[in-house]
Design a protein that fits this description.
The chain is of the alpha/beta class and 273 residues long. The chain has helices at residues 78-83, 111-127, 140-152, 168-175, 195-201, 230-239, 258-272, and strands spanning 6-15, 29-39, 42-51, 60-64, 87-92, 133-138, 158-162, 185-188, 191-194, 217-222, 245-249. It contains seven helices and eleven strands. Helix 6 (230-239) links the parallel strand 10 (217-222) and strand 11 (245-249).
């Protein structure tokens, strides 16, 4: 019978290895564990960061990286989240990156698979007694987090989207207006993707779906982002419930510089408080 399981291959009590983008020295004591979660025949590698001397079932943030990213992106959040009493799970989507420790065959990359993986991760932590679960998604991981929150609804306590790539289906429909025009292999920024990725999103319209989530939402994006649409983030703010925050960082592009990331962390801290 298929079920989620946890494999802890090592556990280290140490000074927090998380560094902010500004290179601050680690200051918080923590436990860091390599943690594998199974989703059917998919094996998801991640790191679970837990500050010491906090409640066992403390709030947890699950961080989803963007296109061709990795769990290392999530380490930047450790210090801020620890200060707020949060555990943090950062992971590699199987087939989501050429550097993925879960599975680096990007020809099998799939938005729907990534939604399934994130859903399985939420289910795992709920099974361990965590009831306050925050999803944080960057770029493509933002799209995946938004779609997952719309499915799980009240099982997700809060949602943070960092320059979310809600425009991915629209962009690829423009490239491949007809299914017949989709290539067997498409390469983007040196990453090869298979036909299935594009077939699955051909009729997907995220802005018709994500508003089903009615919990608190924070969106952070730069107004100089040339990769994803600023207008999609503004539209998402309208679709979510009243009070959804859209924080725009002047001059920031797709991927924040140290001072821009500091602004993101300030907004995250206010949001979670």
């Amino acid at each position: 019978m298929k079920r989620l399981c946890l494999l802890i291959t090592w556990c280290l009590t140490m000074t927090a290895m998380a560094q902010t983008a500004q290179g601050q020295a680690p200051v918080l004591q923590s436990n860091i564990q390599e943690l594998w979660i199974e989703n059917g025949n998919r094996h998801i590698y991640g790191e679970l960061f837990t500050p010491q001397n906090i409640r066992k079932k403390n709030p947890i943030a699950i961080i989803a990286h963007g296109f061709n990213g990795s769990h290392e992106y999530g380490r930047n959040y450790f210090e801020t989240l620890a200060r707020l009493g949060y555990s943090c799970y950062t992971f590699d989507f199987p087939c989501g990156s050429v550097r993925s420790r879960s599975d680096n065959n990007t020809l099998n990359m799939s938005i729907l698979d990534e939604v399934s993986d994130l859903r399985a991760i939420v289910k795992y932590f709920r099974s361990k007694g965590h009831r306050h679960i925050v999803l944080i998604g960057e770029s493509q991981g933002g799209l995946v987090s938004a779609l997952t929150a719309a499915e799980l609804k009240k099982k997700v306590s809060q949602l943070m989207l960092v320059y979310p790539a809600l425009c991915i289906p629209d962009n690829w429909r423009e490239r491949y207006p007809q299914r017949e025009s989709i290539k067997d292999v498409t390469e983007l920024w040196g990453v090869k993707m298979g036909r299935r990725f594009f077939e699955e999103i051909h009729d997907m319209h995220p802005l018709d779906m994500i508003g089903k989530y009615r919990g608190p939402v924070l969106i952070v994006q730069g107004d100089a982002d040339r990769v994803v649409s600023m207008e999609d983030s503004r539209r998402a703010q309208q679709l979510y419930r009243s009070g959804t925050q859209l924080h725009i960082i002047p001059g920031a592009g797709h991927g924040f510089k140290p001072q821009e990331f500091k602004q993101e962390m300030e907004q995250l801290e206010l949001f979670l408080k």
